[in-house]
């Protein structure tokens, strides 16, 4: 009897609070989704910047190896 009464109370609780729990779950899902999208975007941007820096470094190495361009040696 006690178990049935407790089960009935649980069912009533879920019926009364399902809308609030649904909103809370939605907000939690949106927050997690925003975090994932932000982390992904940051990672992609970071990798792109790293590639750009590597390209600039490669160009700088080429110019250093060629030496300065003056009228005498160009």
Automatic annotation (TrEMBL):
It comes from the Eukaryota. It holds the Pfam family Coa3_cc. It is a single-pass membrane protein. This is Cytochrome c oxidase assembly factor 3. GO terms for biological process: mitochondrial respiratory chain complex IV assembly. PANTHER family: CYTOCHROME C OXIDASE ASSEMBLY FACTOR 3 HOMOLOG, MITOCHONDRIAL, CYTOCHROME C OXIDASE ASSEMBLY FACTOR 3, MITOCHONDRIAL. Required for assembly of cytochrome c oxidase (complex IV). The chain crosses the membrane at residues 25-45. It is found in: Mitochondrion membrane. Its main location: mitochondrion. Residues 13-59 form the Cytochrome c oxidase assembly factor 3 mitochondrial coiled-coil domain. The gene is LOC115574936. Signal peptide: none annotated. GO terms for cellular component: mitochondrial inner membrane.
